[in-house]
Amino acid sequence: MAVGIFDSGLGGLTVRDAIARRLPDLPLVYLGDNAHAPYGVRDAEDIFTLTCAGVERLWDEGCDLVILACNTASAAALRRMQENWVPDNKRVLGVFVPLIEALTERQWGDNSPPREVDVKHVALFATPATVASRAFQRELAFRAIGVDVEAQPCGGLVDAIEGGDRLLAEALVRSHVEALLRRMPRPEAAILGCTHYPLLEEVFQDALGPDVRVFSQASLVAESLADYLQRRPEMLGPGTDSAFLTTAAPDQVSRMAAGFLHRVIAFRAA
After folding, report:
1. Mean pLDDT, to the nearest integer, of 234-256?
2. Active site includes 70?
3. Does the annotation mark 194 as catalytic?
4. Strand segments (E) across 104-259
């Protein structure tokens, strides 16, 4: 009954933790493609190829349902995977839709036509590849009209977070926020469009000011998954054990993860 969680590196651990809290009896197999991280600076074809390889590895672990806990992979690869690559007996889901449903105050799975919503000015902070894909704007257009999105590519931020350089990461957040506010001085909401960014949510909030509502993904994705599995319990895979897998050196990734989440996580080679 295992579910797979795929990310280019360690950011998806924030999603994995939220799912584990929401569904404590659900085995979770996490795969970080640390050998090829970060995805945010790669082109769409490269991201598609790497993401497909990671998802297939999780299928091998008995995970018929895989969550792409990586905004870059969700933005650059998910739609193509769902349309042309994923077989009928498997599912691959992304992290954008639960976030947009929360932003537009729609119920899980609400497929009614797009409508006007209260929020009109939205700031999006994401990797350069996610911003370039315009996937967030495309998915938003399916659910809401009249929303102005200003996107800020946050180059260097993922590297600083995974490298454990908190001072650099905070400085980069404030720099990127300042750059966006020059173009959109009064956003009503801000989307943290990368699963690494919740670790700096307080810094984003402080830089944006108290009047901006900051949306982070982990808990929203966990709630959406719980709803999905209630409706589609047949998508629970045959796997029975939780695991942490990596395409890089397990000892090194385990040390990085400990610094990332401040607890011991034992990765093994994928």
Report:
1. 93
2. yes
3. yes
4. 115-116, 121-126, 144-145, 148-153, 189-192, 213-215, 243-246
